[in-house]
Every structure is written in C-alpha cells, then in structure tokens.
Amino acid sequence: MTKYKRQYRELSDETKRKLSQSARGRKKPEWVKNLIRQGMLAYWATVENRPENNEDNTDEQ
User: Fold this and answer.
1) Tens place of pLDDT for every residue, the chain, 61 residues?
2) Domain tally, the chain
3) 19 within a domain of the structure (yes/no)
4) Could you tell me which residues come within 8 angstroms of residue 55 by beta carbon, excluding any fewer than 6 positions away?
5) Is residue 6 part of a domain?
6) Structural domain of 38
C-alpha cells in the first residue's frame, strides 16, 4: 500500500476552514473537475477510517 501524508479521513474544523478559504474564487473546467474527482476517489479508497477512541485502547501507549 502506498503511504501518503494523511493517515485518516477526518480533519479538524480549523483545517477544513483553511482549505475552504484557500479554494474560494478558483475556477476549473468540467473535464479537469472530472479528472480530479476520479483521482480523489481512487486515493480515498486506500485511506482507512480512524479507529474508535474507546477505553480498551487507552492501555496501548
């Protein structure tokens, strides 16, 4: 499996806000949007969800 910087799907609200602000006002043609969509679908299919944070996992530090 290829390793990327991001290990889990979830992002903090602050990070989501920063990404949203940086993308405002940009325009892309539809064919570019479709290429990006296909690539992101393939990428996110390889990233796992963050494990649930419960009391059983607190001893594994």
Assistant:
1) 567 677 777 888 998 999 999 988 888 899 999 999 999 999 999 888 888 887 655 555 4
2) 1
3) yes
4) none
5) no
6) 13-46
